Recover the amino acids of this structure.
């Protein structure tokens, strides 16, 4: 009950401050299982894209939230769990995950020496180590939720998004039936720049583009670059 | 009829005025609706498309007029304080649009916060408490100095003059200009009962909006060479003069609801129309500088701006000129 009230209050606040307009350019707001991936400029990104979704989609879409930032205070923890229904992800576990993937990759490279049959999505999911930072996202997708992720990994400060990390590629491999929708969040870095507390009312919008698909046999880096270009293209629209 | 109208109290007169306004709007809306139902004669596709565009423009104009009339009516019904708060909200959204489309840098953040959350409320509090002398100089004198100081302390000299000027312009047009409308509402004329300010607001808004609409319509109907095509494709002296003239005439005809004599009312309305229409031209130049044609971009822009500033910018320029002239002329 309190969470719902807080949700309404936050929604109203975000709308008054930023307008938070959703522009469905490439796809309609359909209630199917989707992975929305967007550029990352400030901690307010997740609030912005959450507020831009229509109500039916808001209840089934879970944004990603950095555990180290959003569990710093009980209030923040409550907001991300009760109001946004966010998925916590460890950012610091990246070195551990990198180590795990480097350990795991030599083994499959040796095994299918002859025809390189790509491992099935189910096999990939089963092979996911428990401490992997993607594990909470995989669990959410397995239970049918849509998720919002920021493939840059950390907040960017330049004009263009940074190169995407591999999480999006691995999720696309594990869940081929989920629709991947690029999104561009415009102007949010002016609302609360890094280090400031009080937001400035500036109009922001979220543009959702046409879904992209992981082509069979597509490599990791070309796919991620294609995804990044898809997000950047929405800036001009 | 005249004696009956004069015998009503001020509140009843204003109520009657709103009835007239809503009545006219309803009639026009009904007429345009009936016209849209009429079957279009068989013509070529171009004529049909032009007719459709005209109908859409008329509908947009009607929607704006309804929205403005309703906002003013709600403000009047709820009393002076509520009206001031309402105009403060309008100024807030207009300033938000202006700042969105003026690139600011990280160093302006504190100044922007001050502008939205200190300067704007303070200005409207000054209006609400009728400190007219302080409210007239607060932004041009004190804020003009204070905000660039805050920006300077943020340690970013890149394009400093441009950023400070943009911020000051935004505050002058959106906050300072808009705050003069409730100030008119709260102006008390000696020898007249309180509450007649509402008539002055109505007089100003009607004169300025009539001027803008007539100028726009005549400019389309009888196109001449535009005066400054790089700034505005539709601004011509002929339609401008006609618009100002008609606006002045409307103001002159409305002199019975104001403390002016008919000649004074005509002069005041001419002044307000000139200020409003030329101010609109200045805002056009600002928009062209930013590379856009309207703040709202028909709701399709990436910023999500709604075009509020497009509607009220003439009023934002006309209101301070009108307010000051009235106070100076009557020695208030």
């Amino acid at each position: 009950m309190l969470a719902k009230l807080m949700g309404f209050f936050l929604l109203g606040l975000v709308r008054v401050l930023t307008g938070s307009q959703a522009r469905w350019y490439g796809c309609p707001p359909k209630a199917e299982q989707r992975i929305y991936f967007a550029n990352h400029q400030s901690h307010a990104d997740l609030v912005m894209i959450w507020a831009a979704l229509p109500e039916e989609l808001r209840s089934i879409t879970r944004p990603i939230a950095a555990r180290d930032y959003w569990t710093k205070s009980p209030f923040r923890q409550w907001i991300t769990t009760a109001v946004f229904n966010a998925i916590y992800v460890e950012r610091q576990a990246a070195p551990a995950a990198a180590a795990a993937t480097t350990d795991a990759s030599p083994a499959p490279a040796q095994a299918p020496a002859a025809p390189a049959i790509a491992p099935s999505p189910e096999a990939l999911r089963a092979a996911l180590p428990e401490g992997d930072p993607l594990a909470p996202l995989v669990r959410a997708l397995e239970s049918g939720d849509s998720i919002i992720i920021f493939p840059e990994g950390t907040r960017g400060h330049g004009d263009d998004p940074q190169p995407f990390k591999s999480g999006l590629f691995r999720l696309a491999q594990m869940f081929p039936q989920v629709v991947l929708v690029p999104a561009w969040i415009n102007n949010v870095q002016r609302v609360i720049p890094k280090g400031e507390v009080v937001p400035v009312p500036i109009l922001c919008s979220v543009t959702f583009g046409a879904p992209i698909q992981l082509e069979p046999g597509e490599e990791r880096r070309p796919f991620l670059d294609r995804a990044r270009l898809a997000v950047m293209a929405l800036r001009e629209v | 009829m005249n004696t009956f109208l004069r015998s009503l109290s001020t509140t009843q007169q204003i109520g009657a005025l709103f009835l007239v306004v809503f009545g006219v709007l309803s009639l026009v809306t009904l007429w345009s609706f009936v016209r849209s139902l009429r079957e279009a004669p068989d013509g070529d596709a171009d004529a049909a498309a032009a007719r459709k565009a005209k109908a859409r423009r008329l509908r947009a104009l009607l929607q704006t007029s309804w929205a403005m009339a309703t906002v003013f009516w709600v403000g009047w019904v709820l009393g002076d304080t509520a009206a001031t708060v309402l105009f403060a909200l309008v100024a807030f959204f207009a300033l938000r649009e202006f700042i969105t489309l003026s690139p600011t840098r990280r160093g302006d953040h504190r100044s922007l916060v001050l502008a939205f959350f200190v300067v704007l409320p303070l200005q409207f509090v000054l209006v609400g408490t009728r400190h007219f002398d302080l409210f007239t100089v607060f932004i041009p004198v004190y804020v003009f100095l204070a905000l660039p100081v805050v920006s300077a302390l943020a340690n970013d000299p890149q394009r400093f003059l441009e950023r400070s000027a943009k911020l000051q312009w935004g505050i002058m047009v959106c906050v300072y200009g808009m705050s003069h409308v409730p100030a008119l509402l709260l102006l008390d004329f000696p020898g007249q009962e309180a509450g007649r300010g509402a008539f002055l607001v109505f007089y100003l808004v009607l004169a300025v909006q009539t001027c803008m609409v007539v100028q726009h319509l005549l400019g389309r109907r009888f196109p001449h060479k535009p005066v400054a095509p790089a700034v505005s494709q539709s601004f011509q002296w002929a339609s401008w003069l006609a618009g100002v003239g008609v606006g002045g005439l409307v103001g002159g005809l409305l002199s019975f609801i104001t403390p002016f004599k008919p000649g004074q009312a005509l002069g005041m309305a001419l002044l307000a129309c000139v200020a409003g229409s030329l101010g609109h031209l200045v805002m056009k130049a600002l928009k062209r500088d930013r590379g856009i044609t309207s703040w709202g971009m028909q709701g399709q822009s990436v910023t999500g701006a709604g075009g509020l500033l497009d509607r009220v910018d003439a009023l934002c320029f006309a209101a301070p000129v009108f307010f000051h002239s009235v106070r100076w002329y009557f020695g208030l």
